Amino acid sequence: MPPATRRRTAPGSGAPAPDLRAQHKQLTRARLVSAAVDVFEEKGYDATTVDDVAVRAGAARATFYLHFSGKADIVGELADRIWADTGRKFAAFAELPDWSAASIRGWLAEYVETGEENKKALKLFAEQLPHTLRRQHAAHQQEFIRSLTRPAERWSHFTRPEAKRRAFLLINQLETLMPSWQSGRWDRERSAMLDTLTAVWRATLGADHADGS
């Protein structure tokens, strides 16, 4: 019987060496997604072909199909990433120490900054939302509402249905605002817009009431 094979370990670490094949696969997949986002931005989703994406990524057409069945698969992957990231943001809101202007403004500033860093992907997401992503979007919005309305005691000055309605309006407000922000419309008024947005959120949340003020 041949001796059992052992996984190679990283020098001096005692830990298994990285699976280079898996790493290469992940890098290729990420490169294809990045290339697709760039080409979608330049040519539009409908006009972009699989060959366009493969060429931009420096890959063969066959390589593309090893990772994705078509353009819609890439949109789906981007949407999953965006929803996961947004879900983490709303979960982080529930972890804020209070609903003070400083806490809420800091959270909103981070939300906007992340959106600006990913504006190409978010633009594509917004364009596809009314079409292929509508059903998934509705389900994720319910998840975001549940995250935003935690902890329940902080929302106790509202009935549960009212808390959910207010959370829904706040979530939709951000979804509507971000495309305008990413287009550069509010760049010169960034600080003032964050101040106004903070005031709107505090009013909608009944923050003073929640803090016992």
What does this structure look like?
The protein is mostly helical. Helices cover 69% and strands 0% of the residues. The chain is built from ten helices and no strands. α1 (20-43) crosses α2 (50-57), α1 packs across α6 and α4 runs parallel beside α7 (134-148). The longest helix is centred in the first third of the chain and has 24 residues, at 20-43. Residues 1-10 have low confidence and may be disordered.
Reconstruct the topology from this structure.
Elements: H1 20-43, H2 50-57, H3 61-67, H4 71-94, H5 101-117, H6 119-128, H7 134-148, H8 160-182, H9 190-205, H10 207-210
| DSSP summary: helix tally | 10
Largest sheet: none
| H/E series | HHHHHHHHHH
Name the structural class.
mainly alpha
Instruction: Work out the strand percent.
Output: under 5%
Please provide the count of β strands.
0
> N-to-C terminal Cα separation, in Å?
77 Å
Helix content: 55-70%
What is the arithmetic mean of pLDDT?
85
CA-based gyration radius: 22 Å
